[in-house]
Amino acid sequence: MRAVALSLLGHGPDAEDAMQDAALTALRRIGDVRDPAAVRAWLRAIVRNTSRMRLRAARETPGLDGLDRLNPRAHEPSHPERLVEQHAMRDWIWDAVEELPERLRLVLMLRHFSGLTSCQEIAAACETPVRTVRSRLDRARAKLAQVLRSTAAQAHDDASALTEDSRQEALATLRGAAVGTLPREIAELWPAEAELVGALSPPGERTHPYPAMRQNRDAGVRQHLRHGLASRDLTIWEMDVVNPAGAVKPCPPTLAWLMVRRDRRVRTLRVVFPEPSR
């Protein structure tokens, strides 16, 4: 697998990243292999495709839905047994992700399940050097493999239910922010100790996220949920942004909310502006 990646991407971190991404993809899709003798060619094909995607700078479709696509063949009907197998695989992997320490889980979630896929974007989102992101990804993947091996026979929670709850919360939050009043059940998730951190936080000040929400509303900026992703204490909402006509300082067209939670309540909100697609 490394040889294939090197042949397409040359020596450097891109080849290593492509090989590790391909390894995770192979793990997710191992149920597709019916002939053990075909594993070598199958692995080479996966890393070749991953490397070519990098060359095209194509972005992986984010979200837990990606765990459901275990390479079903277009000409085959969707059998109930296969759907059950797919959802079981998704829940198993997501439960393993939940077991990672918060810092490792965040970089893994961003890398594989969000639109912030480059190490540079993840480093900016986490306010940490790129080399630290790479190190955390390596540790996260190694830890994930250990957890998967130890939990294969266990029952797992429904990963999609948590993400759907988060999506509904995001929609209610955006509706409330647009009119200036959050519903009570949503407002309770933003306690007084919630803190806005990162680029939008005034230097040297501790501020609640509400002022930033009000400022956006007053400026006529509107956000629309593109994709939501949640673990027990980390939430990522990716937004499309609509600026008012004639805006002097328009907001970037996309952004992401990164929230750290305890008991569902938001502790910190960091607003991240991804690099524009090339």
Helix/strand order: HHHHHHHHHHEHEEEE
Choose one word for the global shape: globular
Kindly identify the CATH topology of the largest domain.
Nuclear Transport Factor 2, Chain: A
Low-confidence stretches: 57-84
Class by helix and strand content? alpha+beta
Distance between the first and last residues' Cα: 27 Å
CATH first level of the largest domain: Alpha Beta
Task: State which percent range the strand residues make up.
Answer: 5-15%
Mean model confidence by pLDDT: 81
Whole-number count of domains: 3
Question: Could you give the count of β-strands?
Answer: 5
Write the layout of secondary structure elements.
Layout: H1 2-9, H2 13-28, H3 39-55, H4 65-68, H5 80-98, H6 102-113, H7 119-126, H8 130-151, H9 159-179, H10 184-187, E1 195-197, H11 210-218, E2 222-230, E3 234-242, E4 254-262, E5 265-272
Parallel strand pairs: 1-5
Antiparallel strand pairs: 2-3, 3-4, 4-5
Question: Can you give me a brief rundown of this structure?
Answer:
The protein has helices at 2-9, 13-28, 39-55, 65-68, 80-98, 102-113, 119-126, 130-151, 159-179, 184-187, 210-218, and strands at residues 195-197, 222-230, 234-242, 254-262, 265-272. The protein is α+β, with helices and mostly antiparallel strands and 278 residues long.
